[in-house]
């Protein structure tokens, strides 16, 4: 282990030390760390999207802190420690890359992905996960989870509509929304949810990521709203 990593682990241990540690760090639990993990993950994504590598260096450190912090909690509860996290990851990478560390071959990214998925399927069976859907995390953002569920369902030959069929389905759902709004807005929730899922599926079929598309559209909307806000303020004070 490098001196820098050991120093980081020592710092974290001291922050959690009841004798002279940090009151805030001492109050944290696995559950209270969830918002921190999510926030730091999204800040890494933001740095990647903007290609701000100075920010990326800092945000990766903040994300690493979440790993170190949770590992310290687990060490205190005698579940595992940072070293076993690293060892588990190393073993997983070796196991899932038989074309690099074993006797398999992969001449393309597609073949490498096939090897990866084959190993993942073996791991699911070892964990007694009998469904391809078992390890799709419920905590994922809804659009991203929809995409993952749709990808897994495709492997099962379930709900395999074409792009044209999906577009037709979306049009039917939009019509149902219009009818529900005209009759009783309380009935619009189900067709709205179905339309969102169909749009996510359509994005996947077209090789696009709904989560990324919506994030980009949020940025465009925010920019337009800021420009309008600035224009309105200037107009008001003239």
Secondary structure layout:
Layout: H1 3-15, H2 23-27, H3 34-50, H4 53-76, H5 82-95, H6 98-101, H7 109-126, H8 142-155, H9 163-183, H10 189-205, H11 210-237
Helix pairs in contact: 3-4, 8-10, 9-10
Largest sheet composition? none
Structural class: mainly alpha
Mean pLDDT across every amino acid position: 89
Name the helix and strand elements from N-terminus to C-terminus, one letter apiece. Answer: HHHHHHHHHHH
Shape: globular
Integer-rounded radius of gyration = 24 Å
Residue share in helix: over 70%
- Strand runs, count: 0
Amino- and carboxy-terminal Cα gap: 63 Å
Descriptive notes:
This protein has 238 residues and is mostly helical. It is built from 11 helices and no strands. α3 (34-50) packs antiparallel against α4 and α8 (142-155) packs across α10 (189-205). The longest helix has 28 residues, at 210-237. It is globular.
Q: How would you concisely characterize the structure shown here?
A:
This protein has 238 residues and is mainly alpha-helical. The protein is built from eleven helices and no strands.
Features:
238 residues, mainly alpha, 11 helices
